[in-house]
């Protein structure tokens, strides 16, 4: 597939000298889901705002569908749908009128059947005649999503789309994302629910202090940076681990009844067989074993902490 979003050296520095985004270069393939992870203030929303034309860049270039976001703004923006973090809706406008108005803003012909499909998919059809001020926070979020989809964008930005909403909307949102991906829509997602990124993203980008730390295929990232752990439940608690086990990366639980062994998933050998023999030789008897793969959240936290320690 070809890149539908191409970013080269894009930066943003405000008048007070604060550099919200350091030179960033990134290509996003058509039809992929890219999850951008980072702490608050990392630069995620700044990047989205630049690409959507809400903020002017200080340097660099970006193209959406081959259209420059500055010199060919209208053509680039026509391809983009945006679900922002903040809920900003006209309070007295009815849901149906709000969604239809957004479609018209992009110069598309009236298509009530298309809009009905979107509203039904988001459980908004019964609320189509309601003023937005009468809706719950979750329903207002659904209206934002409907408005973002009204003009059938090829690139959809979701900036914390499920923050503070009910479980039902989160489930609906990810089902819609799966449907859009199947239709070839490119989705760039920021979220605090890292388990959701782990579940649906094709690639993961980690950003902190305005700098893109990495972009990598999710599965490859988890294989490369993930660690596995083996938790060994002992038949009898021990006061301390024997000196003979000092060569292994072990930790003893607070109740001293479990030993956890960490090992590299990319290593030539896990060392588990030798460890189990060493435990037996040390007189420790096993009651049970459990293995666990490190999560994307743990990898993300480790990357951010390492970057911040390096910047200190």
Automatic annotation (TrEMBL):
GO molecular function, one term: ATP binding
Short name of one Pfam family: ABC_tran
The UniProt record lists the keyword Metal-binding: no
Domain ABC transporter positions: 5-234
Keyword presence, Transport: yes
SUPFAM superfamilies attached to this UniProt entry: P-loop containing nucleoside triphosphate hydrolases
Keywords of this entry: ATP-binding, Nucleotide-binding, Transport
UniProt-recorded name of the protein: ABC transporter ATP-binding protein
């Amino acid at each position: 597939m070809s890149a539908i979003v191409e970013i080269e050296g894009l930066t943003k520095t405000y008048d007070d000298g604060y550099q919200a985004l350091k030179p960033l270069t990134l290509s996003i393939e058509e039809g992929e889901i890219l999850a951008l992870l980072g702490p608050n203030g990392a630069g995620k929303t700044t990047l989205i705002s630049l690409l959507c034309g809400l903020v002017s860049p200080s340097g660099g270039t970006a193209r959406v569908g081959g259209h420059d976001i500055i010199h060919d703004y209208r053509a680039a923006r026509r391809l983009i749908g945006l679900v922002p973090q903040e809920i900003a809706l006209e309070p007295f406008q009815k849901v149906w009128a709000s969604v239809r108005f957004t479609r018209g803003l992009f110069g598309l012909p009236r298509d009530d059947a298309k809009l009905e499909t979107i509203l039904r998919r988001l459980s908004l059809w019964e609320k189509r005649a309601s003023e937005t001020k009468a809706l719950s926070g979750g329903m207002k979020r659904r209206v934002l999503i409907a408005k973002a989809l009204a003009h059938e964008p090829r690139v959809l930005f979701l900036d914390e789309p499920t923050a503070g909403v009910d479980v039902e909307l989160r489930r609906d949102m990810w089902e819609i994302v799966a449907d859009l991906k199947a239709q070839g829509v490119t989705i760039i997602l920021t979220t605090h629910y890292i388990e959701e990124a782990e579940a649906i993203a094709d690639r993961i980008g980690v950003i902190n202090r305005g700098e893109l730390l990495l972009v990598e295929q999710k599965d490859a990232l988890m294989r490369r940076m993930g660690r596995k752990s083996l938790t060994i439940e002992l038949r009898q608690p021990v006061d301390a681990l024997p000196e003979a086990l000092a060569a292994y990366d072990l930790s003893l639980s607070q109740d001293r009844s479990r030993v956890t062994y960490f090992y590299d998933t990319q290593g030539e050998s896990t060392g588990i067989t030798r460890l189990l023999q060493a435990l037996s030789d040390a007189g420790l008897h096993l009651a049970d074993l459990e293995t666990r793969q490190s999560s994307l959240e743990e990898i993300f936290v480790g990357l951010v902490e390492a970057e911040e320690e390096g910047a200190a």
